Amino acid sequence: MATLDLAELSVREANERLREYGAAGEDVEVVNPDARHHIGVGLVHPITVHIKGSAGYFCAGLTDGPRFEVDANVGWGLADNMLGGSVVVRGNASAIPGVAVRGAEVVVQGNIGSRAAQVMKEGTLCAGGNANFMAGYMMYGGRLIICGDSGEHLGQDMTGGTIYVGGRVQSLGTDAEPVDLPLEELDEVMSFLERYEVPFNGGTFTKVVNAGKHLRYPRLERRVRVVPFFVASEPTDYWNEKVQEDISVKAQIGRYRIRGYGAGRPLPHLSDVVFKRDLHTIPPDPEVVSKISLATELGGRFGAKPLDLSMPVMIAPMSFGALSKSTKIALAKASALSDIADGTGEGGLIPEVREAAKRIVVQCLGGRLGWNIHDMQRADGIEIYISQGAKPGLGGQLMAKKVTKEIATIRGIPAGIDLRSPSRHPDVLGADDLVIKVEEFREATGWRKPVSVKLGAGRVPDDIKIAYKDGFDYVCLDGVQGSTGAASSEVLEFVGIPTLSAIIEAIDALESIGAVCMPLVLMGGIKDGIDTAKAIALGAHGVALGTSAIIAGGCIACLQCHVGSCVVGIATQDPEHEKRYNIDVESWNIHRYLESVRWQLASIVHAHGYERVHELSRDDLVALTPEAAEITRLEYAPELRDERGQPLQLAAAS
Amino acid sequence: MSERNTPAFSEPPELDVYGRERVDPPPVPPEFAAEDDVNDQNYVPAPCQVACPIGTDAPSYIAYIWEGKIEEAFEAITATNPFSSVCGRVCDAPCEPACRRTESDGPIAIRNLKRFVMDRLGKDHRLPPVPVTKEQTVGIVGGGPAGLTAAQGLAEAGYAVDVYELTEMLGGYMTWGIPAFRCPPEIFKEDIDRMLARCPGITINLNTGLGRDITLEKLKERHDAVLLTIGAWWGKGLELANAGYDDRVIDGVTFLRHVNGGTRPELPQKVIVVGAGDVAMDACRVAKRLPGCEDVKVLYRRGPNEIPARRDELEGALEEGVELIYNVQPVAVVGTNGSNGSFALRCVTTELTKPGDDGRRWPASIAGSEHDYDCGMVILATGQRSECEELDSLGMLANDKVHTDWDSMRTTDPKVFSAGDAAFGPSTIVMAMQHGHRAAYYIKAFLEGVEGPLPYRVPFKTRRVPIADDPDWEIFPREHQDFRGLGEQPVEFPEIETTYDEDAARREAARCYRCDAETGAADYNVHTREDIFVMARTKPENATKQRAIFTKRLALRGDPFAEKPATLEDLVFLPANLSRLVIDPYRDACNVTTSLGSRLELGSPFMAAGFDSTPSEVREAVAHALRTQNLGYLGHRSIGDGVHWLQVIVPGEGEPSPDAAAVIATAPTGLERAHADQLLGLTARSDQLRERIPLALQAELDLMVLEGSSQVIDPWPELAGPPDLTVLRDAIALLRELNHEEDLQLVYFGGVRSGTDGAKLIGLGANTVVASMAIALAIGGTIENGGVRFYGNIEAAERDEAAELFLKALAYEASIMPRCTGKTDIHNIEPEDLRSITVATAEATGLPLAGARASR
């Protein structure tokens, strides 16, 4: 048995040593833990770790296999996302013990704090004493045993799993109900208690499960092929066809409508700023790509191995779930062919994508769906999702048709539900928590991987300063033009600010605190190399392409992603539809699209006489509309519109 | 064959559906401007349309079929295609492989949908005749698809045209080459009759051969221009060493011509067809149907992946029992020992070489692989050529073709043009028609003395037909076309296929992606989507095309907000993220109950108005919904028991009712309550605020109804357009100025279309919002003649439910917005939670533009 003394070692050093002992199969005793955070985080070997005292936040978090014993109390987030192994705490646990546990056995002999077992998937969390409010909040699976009393809203919004309460249940919570407890099940509970020597003197247990009333939207939305939204912006036709269709559908379902893609109507955008230099007149140069340095590094601010991209472009994170596996693989392949990075989005990293992508950023969302330590360690970057441009303030929606058995299994949830992902992280209620969460991720990966944050653009100046102070390597900032596989159309259109506004506010905010060293990756309606160049000139370090990459791979922009019967096999989990998608063909299409983006970007840099892409600056741009001028404070030069030729003619209304 | 005087003429280019022209379309000649929409902001020609040599607006006719508008579909089909009925059956249909759905679950059956329309209207539908208006005339040699298409084009332009046809029937290779089981003779006649009825200026001269019955010199004398469309229906290609079996070796076109002439010769038992193009397919299938023939083999020197015939034809042949043998090359015809005159075709096995510079793989013979196939007849379908002694003697032929310049369609003789198979080698009917259109264009330019006319380009038109709104469009598989094969009496050549019935046609039409039509996303509109498709199909090293894409992408969009008034849709909410705690809008509650004047408790901040004069069924539905949702109604009269009634009174025209929860006066005179528990209010438009707000404060009124649309008591004032948002801004400013912001509750009426609109108005300072038009539309009202009409086609229960669900949706939607901003009560939305996205809306609401300095 080895000993680690936290009076002498930092947690970072101790965790590094723990991993070494783990690999060697040697048990460890941790002395003088002093309630420090992250003890044991990231350990994936089945050794015993005996903590001789109290531990702080995320004790035993992001682990798989070890046996932890804690002599005293623990802080919040005990055994966060623990996949296998066990934890026994002799004293009490703070809030959210057993958060997102997926397979481990977690025993607290004393009392447990609020929201225990939040978004738990599998395994057991057991309290010898009482549980505070909302134990079992949003549980997807697994077992929660409370020997004493439970606080209010037990089982609030649980969709799966089972809760056993030995004492009094203060209140059940939304969509939870008590059911009979079969004897053999009681026996299993009792034998678990016996195994972990948890005393129970109180007769029997109350069993609580999901009541099944909120798992699906009550009324199905009538499927219609989309009326182009932007007819709704015609000033002459306030009650146009699109408005009427919306009203008529809402009168059938009693709620907002759902669709895929992003904001449909025209918004102030990068299209409304333009390079001063007339790029029409630059001579074509077949060698332009080789003359310009587009190489871009992201994520080395804190010593992690940065993402070294061949150009300042990434594939935007999109989930396996929203997209078919074939589409995910094609995107990963294309990203490798173009030597950039791909992202997982919500819902986990599938092996095929890991294999196909040269660089992959795994994303952690509030539901921790598919999230696990192994993928973090396999990844090239880690991203905490706070929100996205398409639906900031809301979690993802995956309609039942897409929640297949395979998807449900990788995500650790029941199949066939209308999955509405939680809107916030169980363990991030504010900026302070987020600092500790970032540390946890860094500990879990030995500080080797960049940690970024994804933010839907809202209160950008405040949010971006917080992101900076929370110690992220970079920020992915997503404007309201960003797309999604399913969201309320009202939220898609009307929550969040345009991408153009977002980058300006973000750069100003970073400048105001002297923090321009933090790179921004801009996304939300970026369509080509020209948009990319403008984003970079305005201060972005790079961009991420989502929808446009999907279109390059065959999407026809019908906006019906949520339905699940995608005609080209992209936004579907139906094998009959997925087989329509040809991975080889589409990965090359996406790759060629990315190379065309590269060509455009290089041409613009070259035309300005620069050698490196990041030499582009806002001095190279002017604004074409009053909105863009006011947002960007660039020179307003509408006359350029006439000089550079008229836009395409708008045909007579059809 | 003469090779004299052959200037270097240009050749037809290869078509690439995602080629440079898709992002950089050449200008269309002015005369086609009305038929060309490539500069339309909301349209890009679909791949099927681009692949069609005559630019058929397939997406429109398909959509018309779904709509049941068959005449409109007919117009779209025939606009550029004089042989639409023929094409419905036997077009090579390059549109189908180009169809984007091909890669998913099979292309739209564009050809058979055309047949569906033509089978209904092709025979009898006539367009009005066009008179001859010009003095100049044109002589066209050859009555095939190229010649006749040009004839029609020239006749429609007013020229008299003489067509000189070698044989006794029009149609050229179409009628002489295509077997009747694929296209019955009456179908050719159908198209030709339609054309001649349309163009009385066309004179047909049958049995008139060039050089035999008339000379080119004579034609040039007689006409102002001559077009040669003499076809290429003489076989060529393989020369076989053969030991005196000339009579048993026949070329494919000759064979087909005999049969289409009406003969049904007895064939030997075993027939071999060499080649695998469309002629070979027709020849083998004809042989299979003729008496005596039992065994038909097709020999092809390449493999199945290289086969040039249309896939349908190949599959048809196989299904009819024709045997395909790949990778064999005939070398000689040899006699066999049999005494019945039988012989064999000696072949060698081939293998394909590695792809050459042109990407094609050539078949190379394998030494020592000679083997024989017994047969009684060999049909060589290995190539076609043009032949004309007269032209040869004039030095106008080169390489078996009339030497012709693609860029002008001119031959070496300045007055003589050429087109079709004769000019550019054997091709398809639809390509011949393109040549006809091109030739007509250049001949017209010549006749009109236009020097160096703009190069011809196929015009691409859209009829802007809405997308078929069938919910199962993603799921419907390709509709099967019934295949009958040989039929019971093969020798009679019964038709092999049928077309769809109406239901099948509609299902098939619904499958169309509508690659031409505008999308629902401004960012990924049809032009951007198609540009991305081109980017994805362009090699990185193709600098010219990359450059063309780049230039297209540089096109500036117009100012989307230049003429746009301030509207609610140009306000956005700022979501909670890091700086404000995110709540969970799917789970965390948000209060929407609303107190009006501290005495009236409403279920949500919405009320209704505008149903005073609507039919009683409509009023009952609205009343039902308001009752169940515990909401109020603004109107002259009560809408029903159990609904909070805010009685609107035009002073002097009514008395406060004791039943009303509130009395709202439309003018500031005689403000009085029927009893002390009643709320009292006043309406105000923007221009009335300065007068009425102080007065309302002085009279201690409870509320003020702000009329963004005026007036709340008129029928459907919201139809006038976007509501006035300044009234809310100014009312708040005035109240603030008077230091009475909390002393008068504001009810806003005007243009509320959704719960989101309501939430925004509450954020701007309203306490309650009134919906009217939106509720009318929700329960089935239709906008007609500046008003709203209700029809009796909806059951009362259905209407009740719709009204109730819509009011629920308003409240629910409205509650999502505060939740997204991190708030749990709708009345906590502040102006600070909102931003404008246009200058006009910022001005009208006082809310800063998102991203501008003032917003921070």
Task: Write up this protein.
The complex is a heterodimer of chains A (654) and B (856). With 654 residues, chain A is of the alpha/beta class. Chain A has two domains: 2-210, Pectate Lyase C-like (3 Solenoid), CATH 2.160.20.60; 257-555 and 562-643, Aldolase class I (TIM Barrel), CATH 3.20.20. Chain A is built from 18 helices and 27 strands. In chain A, the strands form six sheets. In chain A, strands 1-2-3-4-5-6-7-8-9-11-10 form an eleven-stranded mixed β-sheet, covered by helices on one side. In chain A, strands 16-26-25-23-22-19-18-17 form an eight-stranded parallel β-sheet. In chain A, helix 1 links the parallel strand 1 (2-5) and strand 2. In chain A, helix 13 crosses helix 16 (583-607). Chain A is globular, with a radius of gyration of 26 Å. Mean pLDDT of chain A is 94; it is low at 647-654. By secondary structure, chain B is of the alpha/beta class. Among the domains of chain B are: 137-233 and 386-447, FAD/NAD(P)-binding domain, CATH 3.50.50.60; 237-382, 3-Layer(bba) Sandwich (FAD/NAD(P)-binding domain), CATH 3.50.50; 594-855, Alpha-Beta Barrel (TIM Barrel). Helix content of chain B is 31%, strand content 16%. Chain B contains 28 helices and 33 strands. In chain B, the strands form nine sheets. Chain B has an eight-stranded parallel beta barrel, surrounded by five helices. Chain B has a five-stranded parallel β-sheet with strand order 3-2-1-4-19, sandwiched between helices. In chain B, strands 6, 11, 12, 13 and 14 form a five-stranded mixed β-sheet that branches. In chain B, helix 15 (311-319) links the parallel strand 9 and strand 10 (323-325). Chain B is elongated, with a radius of gyration of 38 Å. Chains A and B meet through helix 3, helix 10, helix 11, helix 12 and helix 14 of A and helix 7, helix 20, helix 21, strand 20 and helix 25 of B.
